[in-house]
Amino acid sequence: xxxxxxEYGDPKHPLLGHNAGCLSGIKEVSPWTKVVExxxxxxxxxxxxxxxxxxxxxxxxxxxxxxxxxxxxxKVRHEAIKLGVLPPNGILxxxxxxxxxxxRRYIHGLHPGATDILIFGMLHATLLALGHCVRDLQVGKLxxxxxxxxxxxxxxxxxxxxxxxxxxSVKSWGSEKNTEVEMEEDKIAxxxxxxxxKVDMIELEKSVRQLYDCVKYTDSPLSPVEWDSLSTLxxxxxxxxxxTKKMDQLHSMLxxxxxxxxxxxxxxxxxxxxxVDFCSxxxxxxxxxxHHFPDCEVVxxxxxxxxxxxxxxxxxxxxxxxxxLCLSHMGQFRGSFEVGISLHACGSATDAVIQQCIxxxxxxxxxxxxxxxxxxxSVVEYPQSKLIRGEVPKFPQFMxxxxxxxxxxxxxxYMKCVDIDRLEALRDKGYRFLEIRKLKPPTxxxxxxxxxxYR
Length: 455
Known about the structure:
alpha/beta; single chain; 18 helices; 455 residues
């Protein structure tokens, strides 16, 4: 998806799907990114026969048998009627039309996307090397239809001079052993089958309340920020009431970074401290931090080229020379750094940031988001800390806490429980300074916890 953005300069290119979200998630969180970057390339790189290729793609057969779930199902239904795959006057229930296999024309629905092209390209290149073509595959009926459709799509694409370049690059995928963090998909699926019964939930709520009462929020004063005197390029550009809330969030994050930088300087670390803003987006946080710490280096790590291009324009307009842009998934970032920061990294992305900080012995300043979207991956299994495992030993119970943390009516104590687990996991790894603060004012975001930690 980053390549499509870079090549066409269009963050809303049709191949990127709904909200340009196709393959934008890191493989530690997104199963489809993992399939494209790790699972399929590694499987196909080991194949020596047609039957082994067929075994490697059995998951696609299973996928095409599953009900289709779209982002906007009403829109999908209208498009299906226009394409003639649903009757115009047919009255179907939500479950009936979603279960129609005909809606699964491509991996993500009615239209081809980057995932289709990459998977088909890998299959095509592998089979070509074995002296076969994709039509030789003995696969299920729906997958066979997908192959025929993709042949039509790629027949048009072959007229492009970039086609052979894409095939050559796909052939090289999987040639190197991937040692990146991988999700434990089977374990996640098994864990989610187990439910939390009412008796367990009562005990769970008692444990959550005890944890909530025993850990207090830290109230750290913030140095004032004179927003009126700052360039407009340092301010959020939403032109609505959310601007003030975003500025409050940035101000609170700045306070956490100031704490960590002061500690690092007191410990006589190298004068050029590197701060990495993971999931940086357009750099609202990272650029703001770079302005306030001109003697520090700030790296923006983001998967979307469109966001980084906008950040580049702002950096040039501000004349900053201490910001570096990195187009990368956070799990693939290999540079050293002293402070890792993130503002509202979704679900397990916050824990991936924490793991990067642990790996590099770096301080952490992070405001988590989307607690209910956490999933186990190979270096993180929830609950993470020894303390919380003693109170909430099972993953389904912890997931129930995380789910409730996203309910605004009752989320305060549950959010705190998940974040205590994160900080205690850092304590288990040797971090000695641990704080849960609040973004100020707390009304600037419903997800208003701020984690600050250093060794």
